[in-house]
C-alpha cells in the first residue's frame, strides 16, 4: 500500500494504492470501505492510476486525489458510499499544437496537497508545480516551472526512464512557501 492519510476527525484514515482508495475507522481494524475504485473489469482497459490523495484540512468528508493523466478529482464522501463520481474535476486543457508523445507522461501528478486554508490545492507533476483554486475548475491559477530546462531532453530522459521519476513537495507551516525536489542540487 503506497500511502496512508489520517483524517482531521482523528477517527478515520485512508489507505490507497494505484487502483483503489479505502476508508478505515480506527475503532474497526478488520474492515475498510472502498470509496474510490478505478480498476476496470478488464485490466487491458486501464487508462489511468491513482497517484496521490489528500484530505481537506477543514472538512474531513472532502478528499482530493490525483491521477496519472494529470487530473485532480475532489470528492464528497457524504454523496455516496462508492465515490465513483466527483464533485469537481481539475485538469489543464492540452493545447493541441503542443501535444507530443511525452505530454501525458509529464502531466502525471506525483503529489497533491491542500493549502492550509483549504481553498487551494497544489499539485506537482514532472515539469511544474501548479496552484488550483477549488472554486475555479477551469485551470490552475498559477504554474511554476521546475524542470523547463529539461524539455529539449525529454527523449533522453525517456530512454533512461528518468522521465518517470516522481517528485514530492512540502508546504511551510504558514502555507506561504513551497519546497520541492529537482535534479538540480538543492531545493526549488
From TrEMBL:
Q: Which domain of life is it from?
A: Eukaryota
Keyword Repeat present in the record's keywords: the answer is: yes
Quote the cellular component terms of the Gene Ontology held in the record: protein phosphatase type 2A complex
Q: Does the keyword Isomerase apply?
A: no
Alphabetically ordered keywords of this record: Repeat, WD repeat
According to the UniProt entry, its GO molecular function terms are: protein phosphatase regulator activity
Provide the protein name: Serine/threonine-protein phosphatase 2A 55 kDa regulatory subunit B
Please name the source species. Answer: Gossypium schwendimanii
Taxonomic path: Eukaryota, Viridiplantae, Streptophyta, Embryophyta, Tracheophyta
